[in-house]
Amino acid sequence: MFFDGRFPVLSMTAMMAYHSISRWSGALGVCAIVAIIRPAHADPRAVVELFTSQGCSSCPPADKILGELAKDPSIIALSMPIDYWDYLGWKDTLADSRFSARQKAYSQMRGDREVYTPQVVINGSAHVVGSDRAGIESAIGATRKADGVMSVPVSMTQLGKQITVSVAASAKGPAAMHGEVWICSISKSIPISIGRGENSGHEVTYHNVVRNLLKLGDWTGSPGSWTVPLENISRDGVDGAVVYVQDGSHDRPGPMLGAAYTTLH
Question: From which residue to which does the signal peptide run (predicted)?
């Protein structure tokens, strides 16, 4: 189902994610900490955002492809369910109006007014139909040729109930690049039984569904670090987190400069 728009990091290969479990001995008040070290997903070449809807009959093939892309450690795949098809008979149980606004903001920045489902936005710039796997791969290659795209090293470290995000300096010097740093919590797999609308009677599994978004701060080309309590982004079913650095602003999103993914425990 299509929507014509007129309707209303240098790679941190050595970086590791550190997870710790604290156990207190009540009588002595002694904290024993066990660190669990897992390799980070290094060298991401693309952030792929799928704008999808449970009420769109054309979306399930795209939802499946996003699940396949999510298995590729070089791709950070995100599902962003929109809400503008809710009036067709089925209210999307995962939809967020912020995702609808983000999709529209992308179209305004591109100047093409192309807003539809299933739509994939690659590295904050190019868009293709979400069920076009070859088109997605082609767009990944094309967008990576743009200056600065996915060139900034980003890492996350989970320690107890906090996540620390680190963004490296721009290779071109502090004045050459800038952007906003955002963290989003995700649910890796959510099966939904759809009771009405175009997909009535079907169960569709949605992958890497964004459940919350939080701006951490602005990046000005120099190294930066932010710490966020897990309670600020977590909710039931959340088992992963993605951080991205994006040129522009929330209302005027530009190219993706860097990103990182981690599993939450």
Answer: none
In a domain, 187, yes or no: yes
- Domain range for residue 214? 16-263
Question: Looking at the domain assignment, is residue 193 inside a domain?
Answer: yes
CB distance 128 to 141 below 8 Å: no
Inside any domain, residue 228? yes
3-state secondary structure of 221: coil
Q: Identify the CA nearest to 241 among candidates 128, 134, 130, 158.
A: 158
CA distance 145 to 135: 16
Give the Å distances, CA to CA, from 255 to 45, 146, 188, 237: 13, 9, 24, 29
Q: What is the pLDDT of residues 36-76, one digit of tens each?
A: 333 344 579 999 999 999 999 999 999 999 999 999 999 99
How many domains does the structure of the chain reveal?
1
